[in-house]
């Protein structure tokens, strides 16, 4: 019988390689999400997003009003604010101060109840700080190694269930990283570990999760060509003119102009991984 790989180790090694490949010396992943321009760009892209993804995610989790929810890597409140509006008592784990400020603005705009915040990375949150909640959720935010410890801590913080949204295909495939990174930065691009590795790792941790798959075919929308370019420059770390010229040429072959702005077609696959306690 063929021995299965240690999927937690596979995740950790793949994550470390992906992180090392995309950061410059001295940088950290926190630096990226603490940069106000990156946060503003992320929020603007979220607001421009079409197709009801957030509504679909909220509906698929089916978390009852009145539940306590811990949202790990909450960003600008993408799910935290709608859940609070729906009557849940929400606590967020989010290390970025600008992201936290964006969430508070979003919360006030939506007139949502107060949301408790823990300004740390999940890896640095102790079980005592995390507390106990009816549900723990993490949407596209598993930016950590030490998968075994972090997933067991996540499972331990939940009384009723856990919901995770993570990429089955590379989240960067629709942004051109695999196509352009070598030309832009002189080194290959390594993707983060995918949902298949995560699901198999959970099984080895004796967490027997359900998995639902969803194709995302809406692509990326922008009101103007300038906003399209700035977004891609930031995501691809293209700062020099020659780098921006490469990105522009790449996009010129892919964009579609519509009455609403600019559309970049793409298809990606997302896994909703969830289990009940």
Please explain how this structure is put together.
- There is one protein chain.
- The chain is α/β, with parallel strands linked by helices and 277 residues long.
- The protein has a single domain (7-169, 187-217, 269-276), classed as Rossmann fold (3-Layer(aba) Sandwich).
- Helix content is 43%, strand content 20%.
- It is built from 12 helices and 10 strands.
- The protein has helices spanning 7-22, 29-33, 36-48, 53-61, 80-85, 97-110, 127-130, 147-156, 177-185, 195-204, 225-235, 241-252; strands spanning 68-72, 89-93, 116-118, 133-139, 158-167, 210-216, 220-222, 256-258, 261-264, 268-276.
- A 7-stranded mixed sheet has the order 3-2-1-4-5-10-6. Strands 7-9-8 form a 3-stranded antiparallel sheet, with helices on one face.
- β2, α6 (97-110) and β3 (116-118) form a beta-alpha-beta unit.
- α1 packs antiparallel against α10.
- The longest helix is centred in the first third of the chain and has 16 residues, at 7-22.
- The radius of gyration is 19 Å and the shape is globular.
Strand content: 15-25%
Task: Work out the count of structural domains.
Answer: 1
Which fold does the CATH topology refer to? Rossmann fold
Biggest β-sheet strands, sense, barrel: 7 strands, mixed
N-to-C span = 32 Å
Flag low-confidence runs: none
**CATH first level:** Alpha Beta
**CATH architectural grouping:** 3-Layer(aba) Sandwich
Helix content: 40-55%
Oligomer: single chain
CATH superfamily: Vaccinia Virus protein VP39
Order of helices and strands: HHHHEHEHEHEHEHHEEHHEEE
- Structural category: alpha/beta
What is the CA-based Rg, rounded?
19 Å
Q: What is the molecular shape?
A: globular
Number of strands: 10
Strand order of the largest sheet: 3-2-1-4-5-10-6
**Rounded average pLDDT:** 89
Counting H and I runs of at least 4 residues, what is the number of helices? 12
């Amino acid at each position: 019988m063929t021995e299965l790989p240690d999927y937690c180790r596979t995740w950790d090694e793949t994550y470390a390689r992906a992180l090392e490949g995309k950061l410059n010396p001295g940088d950290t992943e926190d630096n990226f999400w603490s940069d106000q321009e990156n946060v503003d760009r992320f929020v603007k892209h979220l607001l421009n997003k079409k197709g009801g993804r957030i509504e679909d995610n909220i509906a698929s989790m089916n978390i009852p009003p009145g539940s306590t929810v811990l949202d790990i890597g909450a960003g600008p409140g993408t799910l935290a604010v709608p859940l609070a509006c729906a009557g849940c008592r929400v606590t967020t784990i989010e290390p970025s101060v600008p992201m936290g400020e964006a969430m508070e603005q979003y919360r006030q705009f939506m007139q949502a109840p107060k949301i408790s915040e823990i300004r740390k990375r999940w890896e640095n949150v102790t079980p005592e700080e995390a507390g106990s909640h009816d549900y723990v959720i993490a949407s596209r935010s598993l930016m950590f190694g030490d998968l075994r410890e972090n997933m067991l801590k996540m499972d331990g913080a939940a009384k009723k269930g856990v919901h995770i949204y993570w990429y089955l295909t590379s989240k960067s495939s629709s942004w051109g990283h695999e196509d352009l990174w070598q030309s832009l930065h002189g080194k290959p691009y390594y993707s983060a570990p995918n949902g298949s590795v995560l699901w198999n790792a959970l099984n080895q941790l004796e967490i027997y999760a359900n998995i639902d798959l969803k194709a995302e075919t809406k692509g990326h929308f922008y009101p103007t060509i300038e906003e399209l370019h700035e977004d891609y420059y930031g995501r691809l770390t293209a700062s020099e003119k020659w780098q921006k010229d490469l990105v522009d040429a790449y996009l010129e072959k892919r964009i579609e102009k519509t009455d609403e702005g600019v559309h970049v077609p793409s298809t990606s696959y997302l896994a909703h991984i969830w289990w009940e306690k």
